[in-house]
Specification:
This is F-box domain-containing protein. With about 525 residues, this protein is of the alpha/beta class. It folds into 4 domains: about 70 residues, no CATH class; about 160 residues, Alpha-Beta Horseshoe (Leucine-rich repeat, LRR (right-handed beta-alpha superhelix)); about 130 residues, Leucine-rich repeat, LRR (right-handed beta-alpha superhelix) (Alpha-Beta Horseshoe); about 130 residues, no CATH class. The chain is about 30% helix and about 15% strand. It contains 18 helices and 19 strands. Strand 5, helix 11 and strand 6 form a beta-alpha-beta unit. The N terminus is likely disordered.
């Protein structure tokens, strides 16, 4: 069969997205013919009719003409709670080859029927990523863990589960690009991982190992994991006991540290012990921060923040740094720039997000940061503060953002806490219209919501300094008076974005066009 006949799959995809009533087809059994399907999607029409029955070297030619909503990743739920009929198996196998990723969390599936149907074959022949959060499924892993699988996520709740995983994975470990082992059982972390020779062979034979430790890791296990040459990603809770000896994670590239209670000295000690010359991403956040409810009166000092950031300075290759906490930081010295001093030494940083801390930065501080971080693309300092946190008033005036018109040449995302002065603050501030070279595309500016008059003035200023940007993620709810007038953050954001877009169109009509932003 000529491969051009496979275009029937594409045609069928188009047909499934067409309303039958649009062509007068009210019966489910009727399908529109090729011409009518092509006419229903104009971008599909010309290449389909011109090349379908002539010559087709690559199906990508037609696939690229399909609308984006037909090509994007789709999510759905599959539940086999009883043995499927023969017709149902045929229907399932027809679409099984399109499935690339599976996340399995339920135990209500009749896995015995599936295993009987596929005793030595793969259930999903095109599966590349499998994520299991069920101990029940571990004994059926062989019907999933086969080439071309490249990513495997397994949650381990017992030593028995580890044995099954090892037996299944050992035969194809070299083909896996990432093996994520999420461990919740203390006995597994304490005894099994350091002592199991079989598990060690599996770990060392992989290209990339991602280990998630849901409980406190004992010092002995930490030392053992540091010796693994394939451990590239490590997610760990702050342990109760930290080894006195250094922890050389020579292959580690991504480190995530979770903390349940605020122990800055313990977090700082853990960072001091870890030696990771190849570390490029560091994430520190509170476990369960998204589930925080109600106001929090716990304040932390700048000295505690400095204790944590100081050891970070040794990770010279660090490119991405995240630090999230719902606690309020007070008394940042020297406008907060001194607190950031350990990070300023990291010249390779290009992505940084520190939440819930107002660094009170000014124009001169931004210039210093621009000199320190020439590769910065994503910069968020203190924005994204939840409304339930009673943060101090922002200290950075919106006008100081004009410095970004000439600095941070690679910046694409900017997030800060700002305030709007009430008197003619925006006159003669920033570059002449149409001359800003800023590449920023997204702005997250907490504290920007005010009266409608301020929206228009701020929008005019932002459209000049950031000609390619749009506002996102408003956090402040505004004053009671603003809410009474219907001036909500979403409304403010939408109105400012519309104003900025309109100003850009007017400038284009006048022949004033800003330099194009990079792709």
């Amino acid at each position: 069969m000529h491969r051009c006949l496979q275009v029937a799959d594409i045609v069928y995809t188009v047909a499934r997205h067409i309303e039958g009533d649009a062509f007068g087809y009210r019966n489910k059994g009727c399908m529109p013919d090729l011409l009518r399907m092509a006419l229903a999607c104009r971008s599909f029409c010309e290449p389909a009719l011109a090349r379908l029955w002539r010559h087709l070297d690559d199906l990508a030619v037609l696939a690229r003409t399909l609308p984006a909503e037909m090509l994007k990743e789709r999510k759905g739920r599959l539940a086999l709670v009883r043995s499927p009929s023969k017709a149902q198996w045929v229907a399932f196998e027809r679409f099984a080859r399109y499935i690339r990723t599976v996340h399995q969390e339920l135990d209500s599936v009749d896995w015995n029927s599936i295993a009987a149907r596929y005793p030595g074959d793969q259930l999903l022949p095109s599966l590349r990523c499998f994520h299991s959060l069920s101990d029940t499924l571990s004994q059926y892993l062989p019907i999933f863990v086969r080439p071309p699988l490249v990513q495997l996520y397994v949650e381990v709740k017992s030593i028995r589960t580890v044995d099954i995983v090892i037996e299944c994975v050992s035969s194809c470990a070299k083909d896996l690009e990432m093996f994520v082992l999420q461990v919740q059982e203390v006995d597994v972390m304490t005894r099994y991982i350091p002592e199991s020779q079989e598990l060690a062979e599996v770990m060392l034979s992989m290209e990339s190992l991602f280990l998630c430790a849901a409980g406190a890791i004992p010092p002995r296990t930490l030392e053992y994991l540091g010796s693994l040459s394939t451990l590239t990603r490590f997610e760990i809770e702050v342990p109760r006991d930290i080894p006195l000896a250094p922890l050389p994670f020579l292959a580690l590239e991504v480190l995530t540290i979770q903390y349940g209670e605020w122990l800055p000295a313990t977090i700082a000690t853990l960072l001091e012990r870890i030696s990771a010359p190849n570390l490029i991403e560091l994430h520190i956040y509170e476990d369960g921060i998204s589930e925080l409810e109600g106001p929090n009166d716990m304040h932390i000092t700048s000295s505690e923040i400095c204790d944590i950031l100081t050891p970070v300075e040794k990770f010279a290759q660090l490119r991405q740094f995240h630090f999230f906490t719902h606690m309020i930081v007070w008394e940042l010295p020297e406008g907060g720039l001194q607190t950031l001093k350990p990070l300023i030494a990291l010249r390779e940083l290009e992505h940084i997000w520190i939440k819930d801390m107002d660094f009170m930065l000014r124009k001169s501080d931004f210039e210093a940061l621009a000199d320190a971080w020439p590769e910065m693309r994503y910069l968020r300092l203190g924005d994204g503060v939840p409304e339930k946190l009673e943060m101090p008033e922002p200290m950075t005036p919106l006008a100081d953002l004009a410095v970004f018109a000439d600095h941070f040449p690679r910046l694409e995302m900017l997030g800060l806490r700002v305030f709007i002065p009430r008197e003619g603050w925006c006159k003669k501030i920033g570059p002449p219209y149409g001359q800003s070279t800023s590449r920023v595309r997204e702005l997250s500016l907490s504290g920007l919501v005010g009266h409608r008059r301020d929206w228009r003035i701020s929008a005019a200023f932002l459209s000049n300094v950031f000609p390619h940007a749009a506002l996102c993620n408003p956090e402040s709810e505004g004053t009671d008076e603003d809410r009474a007038e219907g001036d909500t953050p979403r409304r403010a954001r939408d109105m400012m974005n519309k104003t900025m877009k309109l100003l850009g169109q007017l400038m284009n009509q006048a022949g004033v066009r800003p330099p194009a932003a990079s792709a």
